[in-house]
Amino acid sequence: MHDDYVLIARLMIPTDAHVIRGCLAAAGIDVLLTDDQHMQADMLLAAAIGGARVLVREHDVARANEILAAFERGDLALADDADVGAPLAE
Q: In what residue span(s) does the DUF2007 domain sit (predicted)?
C-alpha cells in the first residue's frame, strides 16, 4: 500500500480549506493543507495558484471523500442555536 499524499480538493476560500482540514483531522485522517497562506497574503493569487489544496494519504482517500460529501450536504453543520461554549459531558 502506498502512503503518498493525494489531492482531494481545491478551495478558493482559505477558511473553508481550514474547516475541511479540521473535519478530516477530527476523523483521524492525516491532512496537508497547501497554498492557503499564499492566498491569505494576496487573494489575487488565488486564481493563479488554483486555490488552497487539501491532500490526504492515498489509503484515506475513500473515507476523506465521504467526509467531504457529508460536509457539502450540510451533514456536519451545527444547528443555529448550538452552544459551542458548552462543556463536554462527563
A: 14-72
pTM score above 0.70 = yes
- The domain segmentation of the chain, as residue ranges, is 5-73
Helix (H) or strand (E) holding 82: none
C-alpha cell at 23: 473535519
Average pLDDT over residues 73-82: 86
What is the H or E stretch that residue 11 is in?
strand 5-11
Cβ atoms 3, 59 nearer than 8 A: yes
3-state DSSP assignment of residue 78: coil
Three cell numbers written together for 73: 450536504
Packing angle, helices 14-26 and 61-73, rounded to 10? 120
- The single-letter code of the amino acid at 79 is A
Classify residue 3 as left (phi > 0), alpha (psi -120 to 50) or beta. Answer: alpha
Contact 52, 39 (CB under 8 A): yes
